[in-house]
Amino acid sequence: MLKSHACGELRTTHVGRVVTLAGWVNRRRDHGGLVFIDLRDRSGVVQVVANPDVGVEAHTEAQRARSEYVVQVRGVVEPRPKGLINPDIPTGRVEVLAHELKILNPAKTPPFYIYDDSPVDESLRLRYRYLDLRRQRMQHNLVLRHRVVKYIRDFLDARGFVEIETPILFKTTPEGARDYLVPSRVHPGEFYALPQSPQQLKQLLMVAGYERYFQIARCFRDEDQRGDRQPEFTQLDLEMSFVERGDVMGLIEEMMIGIVETCSDRKLLAKPFPRLTYRDAMERFGTDRPDLRFGMEVVDASDVVAASDFGIFSKTVAAGGKVKGIRVPECGSYSRRQVDELAELARQEGAKGLAWLALGEDGEVRSSFAKYLTDDETAALLERMKAGPGDLLLFVADRPRTANEVLGGLRLELGERLGMRDERELAFCWVVDFPLFEWDEEDQRWDPSHHLFTAPMLYDVPLLETDPGAARGQQYDLVCNGEEIAGGSIRIHKREVQEKVFELIGLDVAVAQERFGHMLEAFEYGTPPHGGIAPGIDRLVMLLAGEPNIREVIAFPKTQQAADLMAGAPSPADPKQLEELHIRIVDDA
Ligand code: ASP
Q: Ligand 1, closest atom to CA 475?
């Protein structure tokens, strides 16, 4: 080793020792006589002092050194003089007096500071990702990620799971996105598809009798990069045989609690994790990914205002719609302009308008609609909303789904404004009893709400014939702070049921056979009941690290446009390569 100690490990117990360190110049300060170098390696930073009276050459070299030069230092650990102790860093009580200092490699001036985490334009960070990854924030995130994955491996190993790798070059294994295709050189005109998840393969491993499988798996989905997505991402892929949904959920819950409590300093708000039905989640939070760090639930007030003289309310209810509302604390003093802004937001989310009622601290009522209500109606409405002085009530009258979703959106926005979405808190919950299908208006067919292989609830199997829209799936989602962290299900393990689902989603028999024939065939060779789940590692680590997006916890992420700015990918291919792959580029510009 070119070093005897790590920079960050030196303490007063090392005083008097001769140490050899190697790392990067974090900062250098030339005080005429003395040169101070903050030397950094992965473990941390320690102060090195070059004093010409101690080492003339070391001092000359230290004068030449610049930020991010790679240097090696041999010296003696000394206590820092009293007034010069730095309580902010773990090595702040000592410094290393340099006897020898060697520049191992100079460095160009980096395009941004490495030593502090001041904001830098993201494309610059991605262009020089190897420099960005030197920064403390990223080092912390990637080490945290390592810890989480290690925890997962140990946890599952101790419970009899086997980690098995599955192929990247495979056949379409759809999760509702577009496939990435890889042309075959050997089979002209044919393609592999990169797996959107190892879904089929893990089910086949259950057919194969492994009973408990997992993998830290890379998944590939060619989606339009809206929101916080990456073309490739990592999930903990897991499958178990002879289980019911509670078994999978219980295992994952125990693992998640362990991860949070062992690997992070985040606060878990509720243990065990609350379980909500899909319906409940939609009704009370307007989304199937509720953020349970705060209340402000969506409340149904339809019955209270159904007979009122406020036409928008009464007509909506008469037409089968709903009048729903949220109670926003501390916002009763919102000005007209502030409320109008919220109404604009509601319209963007799909509402026709926003009705409101503000209660001053003295109980004074301002409202867009109260004048049409009788005193009794208003009182009943306030009671339904559990409203008190200082509250702002917001109402949407619309189709049930729209009312829920719009208020769900406002709830998040106002929760954010009121500081109720504290990133140090984690509120996990399970959402269950999803509908098995959603109706696709455009293509006039059913779409699986999870994926093709999710089993219907046992009682609901007959509904596949009579009323598919009413069938619920044996699906479960794990949600945390409004983010979907994992989705899984008990699977179909009978050929007839699987074929019925293919039929309902409009998969032609021949196409189903071509794409999934191997699955159908396997189901005939003794397939155990099985189920699984797949927590997203990127999103989980993002929450644990308190980061705003998953790029911050991925070493080499792509941009929103699915590009790698550092290496310049994607890029044109060599004509010779294209020829070998039997590909001709058509310029459709
Ligand atoms: N394959 C599913 C997914 O990627 C997870 C699962 O059902 O296990 O979302």
A: 7
In the structure encoding, which two tokens stand for residue 26, read together? 């974090």
CB 496 within 8 A of CB 429: no
Residues 431 and 479: beta-carbon distance below 8 Å: yes
φ, ψ dihedrals at 533, nearest 5°: -165, 165
Encode pLDDT of 453-487 as tens digits: 999 998 999 999 999 999 999 999 999 999 999 99
**What predicted TM-score, i.e. pTM, was given to this entire model?**
0.94
Regarding the beta carbon of 203 and ligand 1, being less than 6 Å apart is answered no
Ligand 1 close to Cβ of residue 7 (< 6 A) = no
pLDDT for 315-349, tens place per residue?
Answer: 999 999 999 999 999 999 999 999 999 999 999 99
* Ligand 1 pocket, residue 474 CB under 6 Å: no
| DSSP code of residue 339 | H
The C-alpha angle 35, 37, 42, rounded to 5 degrees, equals 170
8 Å CB contact between 233 and 194: no
Residue 417 CA: distances (Å) to CA of 141, 331, 411, 428: 27, 10, 10, 21
Local structure of residue 468 (DSSP, 8 states): G
Start-to-end CA distance of the chain, whole Å, equals 56
